[in-house]
Write a structure and sequence with these properties.
Elements lengths: L22 H21 L3 H7 L1 H5 L2 H16 L1 H11 L10 H16 L4 H14 L6 H19 L4 H4 L3 H22 L7 E4 L5 H7 L2 E3 L5 E3 L17 E3 L6 H4 L8 E5 L5 H8 L3 E6 L2 H14 L5 E5 L11 E7 L14 H4 L2 H21 E11 L8 H10 L3 E3 L20 E3 L13 E8 L1
Parallel strand pairs: 5-6, 5-8, 6-7, 8-9
Antiparallel strand pairs: 1-3, 1-4, 2-3, 9-12, 10-12, 11-12
């Protein structure tokens, strides 16, 4: 997941921007969205990565990019509902829609009709044109008929849909029900239907209120700034180019805070990309060694550090954190482990459709290896912070339970709710942090996150 949303506009679903569209741009934008969706859902490519390199997306105007991004994220976020609406509109509910591209044309048409403020005629007509453009002229009447049925009935049908169930793969939903009860799973699913707001961390904490005013942001109880205005390129917001702040979800900003004062301390940041925690540590006065196995992701860390003028506090090294070892034991280690990222669905709705249960279990194995190696580096009295942006307890709570069973000299150092913005709901009975998407709902919600603070005794 990229730290900065390069060339993207932070938009909320449902805002109509059709008054900015030209006749030529309408079809071009939808063609780009169609190809992006096909790459994400058929080839299991992360949406952010596709957007960063997609020629069709990059070639349209800034306003059309905002529309493409809104259309793709809305379609993915509401995919289960959209497919359910298509089934309802078919003369035979079990009818196979072929070829696959025909289904994608219907999907983006339905997304506009049911979940965006696109005029019905624009959504239907451009979908019919796309059908012809993809050499399926014989299917034009079929597309027209399905979409016009949904234009008439779709709004009524959506009121009777089971939103969390339809938009969440069954294997994930079953785990959420087992871990958080049926009510909790429903609340998580409903919270994931809203796009995550733009959160930022400021470099100089003493200027927090100053940047809150300039960015028209509120200060969350945890100390993160949450921008209240939607839209606009992130890179053009005041202070970005000058390195005064960086994009970082409020949940992701919590782990570093649990070290306490790290000024003048040496901290190892394992699996450091995209670098938000590295920057937090450096801004707090720590000397940081940031490890990541990806050269491209390591380069991104270095670019962000340079923009923030924090490069002198950090050494970035390309290495596999599951086998790397220091010359001597360390007092401060943070491991933000690779995970299924199911806590980030508000920002990355593609995650649930591009990962499988088998992928999750493979990540659980990787996390265990990383944790075991991190524990081996920890000095007596040292602190290890383990975290993931997953809602799956196999990647969080149960990972720590297994670690503690196998290592009698490793103990939890329970987190107090005062350390996480005085929010009691964030801290579970074991003193670990478990943030859920519906927490701080009145402020716009949170990314799902798990954090455990460990010490060697």
């Amino acid at each position: 997941m990229s730290l900065e949303l390069d060339n993207l506009t932070n938009n909320s679903n449902g805002k109509s921007i059709n008054d900015t569209e030209t006749a030529a741009g309408m079809l071009q934008a939808r063609e780009a969205a169609l190809d992006i969706l096909y790459n994400v859902l058929e080839k299991s490519r992360p949406l952010d990565q596709v957007l960063e390199s997609h020629k069709g997306f990059l070639s349209v105007s800034t306003r059309d990019r905002a529309f493409v991004r809104m259309l793709t994220t809305t379609t993915i976020r509401r995919l289960g509902q959209i497919d359910d609406l298509i089934r309802r509109a078919l003369s035979k509910p079990d009818q196979v829609i072929s070829p696959p591209m025909l289904l994608y044309i219907l999907r983006i048409g339905v997304a506009q009709l049911a979940f965006m403020n696109t005029p019905d005629h624009a959504a239907v007509n451009t979908s019919v044109e796309l059908t012809q453009h993809h050499n399926m002229s014989k299917k034009k009447a079929f597309v027209n008929g399905v979409l016009r049925t949904i234009a008439r009935e779709g709004k009524n049908w959506t009121t009777r849909q089971d939103v969390p169930r339809l938009n969440t793969p069954e294997w994930i939903l079953k785990q959420w029900i087992a871990d958080y009860t049926l009510r909790g799973a429903i609340d998580i699913g409903e919270a994931n239907m809203s796009e995550g707001p733009l959160d930022v961390s400021v470099r100089d904490k003493e200027r927090l209120e100053h940047w809150a005013d300039l960015l028209k942001a509120s200060v969350l109880p945890t100390g993160t700034l949450r921008c209240l205005e939607k839209g606009g390129l992130i890179q053009e917001k005041e202070g970005f180019k000058d390195g005064m702040w960086w994009v970082q979800d409020a949940s992701a900003a919590l782990p570093v805070k649990l070290f306490g004062d790290v000024s003048g301390k040496f901290v190892l940041d394992l699996c450091a990309a995209p670098g938000g925690k590295t920057m937090q540590l450096a801004a707090a006065g720590a000397d940081v060694l940031a490890l990541d196995r990806s050269p491209n992701r390591a380069k991104k860390i270095e670019e962000n550090l340079k923009r923030l003028r924090l490069e002198n506090n950090v050494r970035v090294e390309i290495a596999d954190a599951s086998v790397w070892s220091p010359k001597e034991a360390l007092e401060y280690i943070i491991l933000d482990a690779p995970c299924s990222a199911t806590g980030t669905l508000r920002r990355h709705p593609d995650v649930v459709w591009t990962k499988t249960e088998k992928d999750m279990w493979a990540l659980v194995d990787i996390q265990a290896r990383l944790l075991n190696n991190a524990v081996g580096m920890l000095a007596p009295g040292g602190t290890l912070i383990y975290c993931t942006c997953s809602l799956q307890k196999e990647e969080g709570e149960r990972q720590i339970e297994r670690l503690l069973q196998d290592n009698s000299d490793i103990k939890r150092k329970p987190v107090s709710y005062e350390e996480v913005g005085h929010i009691k709901a964030f801290v579970n009975e074991n003193g670990d942090v478990r943030v859920l998407p519906y927490h701080l709902a009145a402020h716009g919600g949170m990314d799902g996150f798990f954090i455990s603070r460990l010490i060697r005794v």
